[in-house]
Amino acid sequence: MSETTKALGEFLRARRELVTPQQAGIPDEGVRRVPGLRREEVAMLAGISADYYLRLERGRDRNPSVQVLASIARVLHLDDEHTAHLFGLACEAPRPRRRRSRKESVPAGALNLMDALVQPAFIEGRYLDVLASNRLARALSPGLEVGRNQLRDLFLDPAEQAHYPDWEAMAECYVASFRKSVGNDIDDPRFIELTGELALASPHFRRLWARHEVRAPRETLLKIEHPQVGTLMLHREQLSISGAEGLMMIVYHPEPGSADADKLALLASADLPMMDAGEQFRSSVTR
């Protein structure tokens, strides 16, 4: 069984368990031994045999048709993002094996732009590693130092969790966007290493990861507790970087004229380290 077909089966099982009989229009009679729908119920509603659906969940069928996948997506109440993820996992097109360098390269222009911004900004890689950050971002959070991993910090670092009072909701969003970013490229060593570490160390990560939520990052309002300036409410914007697949520039910004803007200005005026992003990136340790 390939890793992709295994992932397809895990995805189907996880999403099946999230659909209630009431949502599917099935009378809920008596005690059910499994959460959500039974396999045979999904098969019946999708118009396929129970044996064929069982083969899909067990990773024994590698080429389901578009019609079958669309029917299953309908039964499992998948939205557009989850449906696209389902099709990606079931796709039989060969994936080129990329020779990944252990260090993702940030274009110099992106570093210069980030340093020029008057708002906290940083550049994250495909696995939510912090690859570069400007002075104000590092003053805002120690978790935005180069070399830190945002997933690892959110689940394993109590100090980082205290920094974000709504860290549980934040972690849920990060896990969903991380899964979407990786897609079906699940045999990548960095992916295996990171998810394995988190699954062993964090029951909360295991629960979220098992739900197979898939969601693109969206503009978010973050609540941040800072030891010097107190509570800040900042918008989180994500911008793609041209010519750097998988890399994103993240910018935090307050509402203009708000108390949060004043606090951020106060933080910016403090005596902060003067290392620029380019120097910081070049001196970072390869992860």
How many helices in DSSP terms? 15
CATH T-level topology of the largest domain: Beta-Lactamase
Q: What is the spatial order of strands in the main beta sheet?
A: 2-1-5-4-3
- In CATH, the architecture of the largest domain is 2-Layer Sandwich
Could you give a short account of the major beta sheet? 5 strands, antiparallel
Total beta strand runs: 5
Order of helices and strands: HHHHHHHEEHHHHHHEEEHH
- The general outline is elongated
Low-confidence stretches: 272-287
Distance between the termini: 30 Å
Mean pLDDT figure = 85
| Number of structurally distinct domains | 2
Secondary-structure content class? alpha+beta
Helix content: 40-55%
Describe the structure.
Strand 3 and strand 4 form a beta hairpin. Helix 3 packs across helix 4 (50-57), helix 9 (150-156) runs antiparallel to helix 11 (167-182) and helix 12 crosses helix 13. This protein has 15 helices and five strands. Mean pLDDT is 85; it is low at 272-287. A five-stranded antiparallel sheet has the order 2-1-5-4-3. The longest helix has 16 residues, at 167-182. The protein is of the alpha+beta class and 287 residues long. The chain has two domains: 3-90, 434 Repressor (Amino-terminal Domain) (Orthogonal Bundle), CATH 1.10.260; 108-283, Beta-Lactamase.
